[in-house]
Amino acid sequence: xxxxxxPRKAFPSLDSLPRSYFLGHHRAGLNKMxxxxxxxxxxxxxxxxxxxxxxxxxxxxxxxxxxxxxxxYTKQDLGNRGGHADKQRExxxxxxxxxxxxxxxxxxxxxSIRKVLNFARDHxxxxxxxxxxxxxxxxxxxxxxxxxxxxxxxxxxxxxxxASTGAQPGVTRKIGTTVKxxxxxEGNEGVYLADTPGVFIPYVPNAESMLKLALCGxxxxxxxxxxxxxxxxxxxLNKYDPNVYAEYAAPTNDIMSYLDAVxxxxxxxxxxxxxxxxxxxxxxxxxxxxxxxxxxxLDEVSEEGVEFERRERQGLGSSLxxxxxxxxxxxxxxxxRALTETA
Length: 343
Hints:
Distance between the termini: 44 Å
Number of helices: 11
Largest sheet: 6 strands, mixed
Helix content: 40-55%
Strand order of the largest sheet: 3-2-1-4-6-5
Structural class: alpha/beta
Strand content: 5-15%
Low-confidence stretches: none
Shape: globular
């Protein structure tokens, strides 16, 4: 019975999980961004609203220092239900990031995009440039940078999309030319925005952070087995409210039992009527990503949660050499454990 169901208190530790997705075009993109800083007035750093702590990339603060920043939490519509707890969380995030300005956005909401556009216009006016204001949008893979650029261009100029978007990371692999988002007017000579490729953290400090980023689509779905990712989502759903998936299955901690029920309910069956577990896992993940398995935040945004994230990342992420060393140490420890177990 649902009343006697007890969700898991913790997700199993997965030492074998990949801890990096820092690809060649990530480093190339970051190097290119650094060369552009001399004529950039504002860096708009996008983070995913559903993982406001985990989607922060310290590389941007280290490598793009010296320019004014706006931190923009995208995909607000997928994590905010408009309640008191959401407002409290957003107030805490603003406080955490002071003195850097913070905004929250949904690229499908015109009022939300208009606020970002007004911020960009006011910033341009304050610079009073003769050649217009140049801005750059940066962030982790698949946090919505290209969607933001398209939405700003539509709101500012009433023109169609110029940046390609997709459900998987890596659609934008190179920095394109700057795109006008605001026409020249009184007090400014126009505002131009450059889209950039997503840049992953060189090394993720713990397995759960990697699962969160993968669940939000920051790494390709082929990197982590779909059933593992679906199991982590089930763990999060049960923490939030197991009734969210009541139309598919009774509350459970058993991912295979859940996926079996989903496969039969949605008709994802293989030859002989066997449930297609992997297809059901991918379907379940996509349902959550698009807001159809309710809307909630994966990170614990509290003083304790912020402190835990700070400790985990201390000395990692901002240095490629440190990241490589940490990865090598982890592989060595895994090898030692494997040898001990087989001895």
